[in-house]
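[Q] Does anyone have a clean structure-token version of this?
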Amino acid sequence: MEREIKTTNDGSKTLFISELNENYHSHHGALQEAEHVFIKNGLNLINDYEINILELGFGTGLNVLVTINEYLKTDKNHIINYFTLEKYPINESEIENLAYFELFDNIELKNIYQKIHQSEWEKSIEIIPGFHLYKIQCDFFDLKNIDLPKINLVYYDCFGARVQPDLWEMPLFEMVSDKMNVNGLLTTYSSKGSVRRVLQDLNFKVEKKQGPPGKREMINAIKL
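[A] Here you go.
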């Protein structure tokens, strides 16, 4: 599927797939969405010493970058192991033109952005001290066959249910749940009633939160 780069309302860029009529991020603001859903309502709610993050999926790498940016603001007295799945990696031209490091004041992020994308797949890479990235090229439904440590934070960032409804149904959520620790947090931009019901059926405590710009609500779900 062909992709083109578009600029969202906060000045950050995203990829658009015309065949699906779908953006990788919200057109209201790619950066704002990532920081609101996955940092404010995700990473910043976890207090464990060792944080194992599972992301579905890697996409443009923006969620990894905002996570590292937040990590650099802390005293870094904890460890992050970041596991991310992606079936269709973006290419070098897209990486260069997205240039997400330009959105941040921290000049370190240019080298970090490049290292994120240059890191080998299927291998744990220490991007900065204490932050380990493991990129896995696979279909999301291969998750059941992947050996992971118990996950305490999930970034559920699949394409929307309009274009890929199977990614928002019981089978995939069950696989994700099986990889999670008790009290682990799943955060997603979605607020669909069907998604809430699936998560509740899987013994999650589901909470509706204020959504990112342009979206009224989103979901946090704690595995009980």
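[Q] Thanks! Anything notable?
[A] Helices lie at 30-40, 62-73, 92-98, 108-118, 170-178, 193-201.
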